[in-house]
Specification:
Largest sheet: 8 strands, parallel, barrel
Structural class: alpha/beta
Mean pLDDT: 91
CATH topology: TIM Barrel
Length: 252
Amino acid sequence: MLTVRIVPCLDVRDGRVVKGVQFQGLRDAGDPVERAAAYEAGGGDEIVILDVSATTEGRGHAMETTRAVRRALGIPLTVGGGVRVVDDAARLLDAGADKVGVNTAAVDNPALLTTIATRYGAQCTVLALDAARRLDGAGWEVVTRAGKHRTGIDAAGWAAEAARRGAGEILLTSWDRDGTRSGYDLELIAAVRDAVSVPIIASGGAAHAGHMVEAVRAGADALLAASIFHDGETTPDSLKRALAAAGVVVRQ
């Protein structure tokens, strides 16, 4: 049985941590190196850095941010944003990332996942899957380019294909819940859980430990959050104590 991980997330734009709602209305939330170090000291199991502007602005990932965070960090680091070809992944891994997240480019070219996994291993290959409920309410579709493009692709089906192609983990973000603090999309998590056996990191909507307990029961293996950490409302250690009290086996 895998222990449940608490994963603070740093959305980064122009070298600064930002946070918004549904990927929009971004506000400054601090220095990524300081934030990452504080979240590790506070009990975070891993850190995720997502360059939220890399794909939409057509530029590569800010390698210097990755290097600087890696120098301050002892726990695993996943980095995504702007990964278009396998050499982009190589540069991130060389800069200190332990895992690389791929979103838009994998949708455009699914073979990219296989290429990265073949060269560096499934354990380094993360599908960053942003999903929104379909406009007719019947299931979820993949969205790309910071949520601006609805692909029509079934989210659970895409997760299953990505796992077959070599993705060792799914970073599953509910676009509808992102930044809303209304709780994770439990039905979305359950649908993807039914489709894949690889670990799922649930993202989008966390406000408190109760939401995280619900996500674990729906099928999440790890719990990503941002706003509640950035705003100083809680710490990973506090959440772990609450989850353990609810019977969830967490990393200590």
